[in-house]
Amino acid sequence: MNNRSVTEFILFGLTQDPGKQKAIFGIFLILYLMTLTGNFLIVVTIKTSQTLGTPMYFFLFYLSFADACFSTTTAPRLIVDSISQKKKISYNECMTQVFAFHFFGCMEIFVLILMAFDRYLAICKPLRYTTIMSQRVCGILIMLAWVGSCIHSLAQIFLALRLPFCGPNVIDHYFCDLQPLLKLACMDTYVINLLVVSNSGAICMVCFMILLTSYAVILYSLRNHSAKGRRKALSTCASHFIVVVIFFGPCIFIYTRPPTTFPVDKMVAVFYTIGTPLLNPLIYTLRNAEVKNAMKKLCCSKE
Fold this sequence. Notes:
It is a multi-pass membrane protein. This is Olfactory receptor. Residues 38-284 form the G-protein coupled receptors family 1 profile domain. Pfam families: 7tm_4. By secondary structure, the chain is mainly alpha-helical. It has a single domain (8-302), classed as Rhopdopsin 7-helix transmembrane proteins, CATH 1.20.1070. Helix content is 75%, strand content 3%. The chain has helices at residues 18-48, 55-72, 75-81, 91-124, 126-132, 135-161, 178-182, 190-221, 227-255, 265-286, 289-302, and strands at residues 8-11, 88-90, 170-171. It has a three-stranded mixed β-sheet with strand order 2-1-3. The model has no long low-confidence stretch (mean pLDDT 86).
């Protein structure tokens, strides 16, 4: 199939209203800078702190790194396009964005699962925790997460490269993803859409169910802990659970349904591509005394 009859796409963006576009530029520039600052601060704090050397913070380090990269796959172009007359993206740039978006999004999903697994072992298997979650095991788990993310992204880009584009070339979105690209393909996309749902949709649903099950088991096991132990465990798990819900809710809405367009699709996408990476560092710092103390020490040492 010849998919190069279209060599570039035009991103419709969130709106075509000039006044709203200026507001989008200011608002999302601030949100993006806050996202980078918050996640970078967590990465630096965990890397330099002597007290945050446990597996939980090892995984939080990679979650913050994935958050920063995930937001960077979409936010900069949205910001630039909001003040640009021509919102063009080349075919190769579009395919690169599809790969990077799914790679770091999938990486975030796998790291969230690893964090839930870590909390399960720490709370339900405390005597074996340090033996099981050794530094070597944590490194292997993160490596598997990288490999799994790469496999998922390669599957997505393989499907995208199979699509022939004959025109029109206006993507009704603010970034390249398979769902809006399927609408532009000059072929029957029913089978490919099924593959997208069975890939991205299945990953979202299965991982979400795994996470819900793991937290249910953790909550059930807390009945045998002391009141102080329950409060500490619930505080940690509550942070993780909030992150899981605000990330997976929008993802499931987008990737587990037939190729139907809803007016709220782009705003839902904004929530999990830009909102979630911004909220994660706030959730993990505001609800975590150890991280806040480590950040204070880091700031004091710089003075």
